[in-house]
Amino acid sequence: MTQEDKKSDENKQEKNAALSSNSESNPASEQIIPPIVPSESEEEEIISHAITDAELPEFKSKIGRKLFGPQITSKQAPPTPSVPKELRKLNLRIELKSEQNGFTIISVNDARKFTDEDTGLLILESSTSEISRASKFKVDEQQKEGYMQVSEEIYKSLNCDDERLFIRLYSDDPIRVENVTLAVSPISGNDIFHTVGSLRKSLAKLKKFLESYTVFEGLTVKWKERNAVIKIAKISPALYENDVGIFDFTKPRVLTIKPDGAMQFNTILIMDISKSMNGRDLEVKNVKSAVETIRNAFSNKELEEFLKVFKEGNNVQRKSGAIFAGLLYLSEKARIGIGETVSLIMFANSAEIIRIENKPYVITDSKSKAALNSIAEQVLGDLEEKMGAGTNMASAIEASEEIMKNLPRSKRKWPLMIILLTDGFDTSKRVREAVRNTFSKKENVVLHAVGLGPYVNKQELIEISELCGGELFQPDDLGELLQWYANRAKDLSIRLAETETK
Questions:
Q1: Torsion angle in degrees (nearest 10) through CA of 88, 89, 92, 97
Q2: Domains of the chain by residue range
Q3: pTM for this prediction
Q4: pLDDT confidence tier of residue 215, bands split at 50, 70 and 90
């Protein structure tokens, strides 16, 4: 052996001694792998050795990822990655159903690919449209795998012509909408308010029908049983892009039903002129356009003087605000000009009907300007003499019946809106009874209440308005009052307020 060979053997012995020393000083390690590349005959033995998690990083760095990385095992091997069931997406062929209501029907096998439930919510997506829609689903044992039954209304709202749709589970909590406005028209015929009245009488069935659908603005469905086309016109709370809304009538909700399109209706404006209406606490705000509307409808010197008090920021009497609102309503009806009738009742201790040419109404059309001026003169003149201390609401309600009986025969079957404005309590103590006796059997009557000032009997006004499909409105300022009256001149709606659970 040469001198160099002896030196090499000595070096190897020193290295092996050092390795042996390291192993004894590190009892937590099962085995220290030498920092050398193994021969082919040694690979199988090293790979099959169970490496602890603590040893794994050092083992990889010493042996090299290229040779051993993909084949390394440990005592706790990581799980194989997979898509959770609730995130899976299916692509199914469509079967459109006109009588499906809002439900999507899927097979048992398809359902089990993403859920163990038999009902719930799905998201339907098109490959050709950016729109997606939520739908309630049911599992049906008779449904063919790979196919699903989809409501025609839901499919049309996707704005696509796909033969297949992607579906995935919606697992978040949906939003329970609290207030929905439905725009209604008949499937056949042209009697819109008859259809509205039919829904009004069938509230329990209407709720059950709606609960099968998810909620989004613009959804249009047909309810053949009631000859009704129903469109969701407004939702509260508002829904945003990724929100899913549902009807949930296990708690009190509000449905408002209105005709989808223009419709003629008559109006009775009832105005409180009791002495408390002299209270000066109604702030003038945003009234410029309303002033111009009234000026265009009337030609009256007294009216011009009356309008001068309405300066932005001023506080005016409740009585003045009530008169302003009534005249604005008449102006809007005259501008629309389709021959509707408007009547006016003023009350304090008792009720008085304003008459025009001995008639308890004015017909609002292109020829009504002289009649409107006559109303303005009566309302603005000698009002102080008519004011009393009482607030006899019952007498005003009963006077409404006289007006209804004396409307033109051709207009008596039209819907009737009544707006009762007051600032106090009913001193007659029988306004509820009067409303029930006068309107309970008249399905074409809607009564709204407007409360001014801090002393309104809110509960009483809510009750009488709900009896007739109306609402209580309490404005914060004159601008809000005027806007509300202007809107009511164009829109007859029935508010179905829920005061108890189903």
A1: 100
A2: 3-71, 85-169, 176-259, 266-491
A3: 0.76
A4: very high
